[in-house]
Design a protein that fits this description.
Elements: H1 8-18, H2 26-41, H3 46-56, E1 60-65, E2 71-77, H4 79-87, E3 91-97, E4 107-113, E5 119-126, H5 132-146, E6 154-157, H6 161-170, E7 175-178, H7 180-191, H8 198-212, H9 217-230, H10 245-258, H11 265-290, H12 312-326, H13 337-342, H14 347-352, H15 383-397, H16 402-417, H17 453-461, H18 478-484
Helix pairs in contact: 5-6, 7-17, 8-9, 10-11
Length: 495
Amino acid sequence: MSKAGVSPRQIMSSLRQSNPDLQAISKNIYNEKYRIMKENLAGRTVIQALLEELGQAGFIYNIEYDQNGRLTHLMFAHPLSIALTKSYTNVFVMDCTYKTNKYKMPLLDIVGVTSFNTSFYSCFVFMQKEEEEDYVWALTMFSRILGVEVYPLVIITDRELALMNAINIVFPRTANILCVWHIEKNVVTNCKPHFTEEDDWVAFMSTWTALINSHDESSFNEAWTNFEAEYNKNVVMHFGNRATSRGEGAHSNLKRYLQVSSGGLGEVKERICLAIENQFHEIKARLSSEKIRHPHKVGIPFFKELITHISIFALDELHKQYELAKSNNLSSQCKGHFCRTMGLPCAHMIREMKFEALQLNSIHEQWRIDTRSFDHGASLDDGDEIGVLLSEFKFKYERMPLTQKDNTKRKLTQFLGASLPLLLEPNVQPHKGRPLGSKNKKESSSTKRDPSAFEIMEEKSRKCGHCQGGGHNIRTCPLKYKATRPSFGPATPAE
C-alpha cells in the first residue's frame, strides 16, 4: 500500500476496517516503513540506493555532485516517458515547481503535448540553483533523450531569463514562446497601480489584449503603434499552446501524488513513477480507442481519409473550420494564422478545395495517431555507436599478443568493477523568498505554493461588497457590523 502512495493514516484505517480488533496504532506503520527502508538500503547511502534503483529500472539519468560528495543535480526520465518524448518532439512546456522535497531543491518539470492535446511528463531535473549553467546542464541532458539533431518546434516558458538563455544555447533552432498568462499577470502587477479610474484600466487592457492577439507581424506592428501612441513577430507553429498553464496543471497533478513537501529524493521518485505510469496507460488506452472510433459529426466524405488516422481533437478543430467555410461569416482575406500555428487546413483552404476530401499529407504529424505505438524503449541514440566500438575492440583484441591481452583484461576488469564515489544527500537549499506583502508563514510540509506578486496585488485591489472599501471583505466589514449592532442609547422617559 505504501508503494501505491497510500499514507500511513489511510493504511491504518483500511487495516481496521478489515480487522476491527487490530491492536496497532499509526506509529507502528511508521516504524515498519522505516524498518523496510533501512533493510532496502543494505548499508548504502540514500543517494547510492536511489541511483542503483534508477539504473536497474531502465531509467535514463545523470548526476552532478560537489567536492564534498553531496548531490547537486539529478536528472531522470522514466522509460515510459522516454517512449512518449521520442514520439512527440514538437512542443514542450518547461517550468520549475517548488515544495516537492525536504532539501528545498527546485524541480524542473518538462511537459510534452500529445496528439490528443493532453500532457505527459517527459523529464524531471532536481537542481541546486536556477542559474543559467544549471539550466544548460538540464537541457543538455534532455537533448540526449530527444536524439541527435532533434529540436522541438516550440518551448513555452514564463519569463525566467536563465532558462530562456539556456534554450538559446542548447536549442538554437527552437522558438521560445513566453506564457501569455504570466505576461498579463505581470501587466496587472506593474501597471494597474498607475490607474486611478477603473474605466481607464479597462481601456488599457482592451488595447493590450488587441496587441497580444495579433495574428501576424504586420498586425502586431500596427497594434504596437496604436499602443505606443495611446500610452507613451514571426508566427511559429505552437499547436494552440501559448501559456504555461499546461505545466501548472502538471505541477498540481504531481503534488496530488507527493502529498507532502518533506520527502527525500527516493520517496519523490517513487511518487513521480506512479504519476507517470498512470498517465502513460491513460494515453495508450486513448490511442487504442481513437484508432477504432470517431465522432458522428465527422462521418462525411470530407473527413473519410482522416478518420482513425488523426486524433479526435484534431478532427474537432477541422470540423469547426469546415462549418466556418460553409457559413457566411468567413472573412474575405486569409491571413494564414490558423494553418501556420495549428498545422491544420483553415476554412479558406477548405473553401478553395471546394470541400473535396482532405488528404493526410495536409495534416501535421503532431496530430497523427496511426503511426504511433510508444514502443521505442528507453535507449539513447548512441547504442549503434557502442556496438561499433565493441566490434572494433573485439577485432583488435583477437590480434593482440598474450601479454597485451592479459593487460587489456586487467584494465577491463578494473573498469567494470569501478563504482561511483560515496555520494551524500544534498544540502538544504535556501528559499528565494516570498513576494513582498505575502504572509510570513511557519515552515510546513504542505506542497501548496506561496502566492505570486499578482495575486497579492489582486487581493489588495479587491473591494468590500458592502462599503466598497479596501483591505477587508463583506464578512469583516466594520460598517456592516456597526449598522447591524443594536443601539443602547439613553432610555426615553415614560409619560
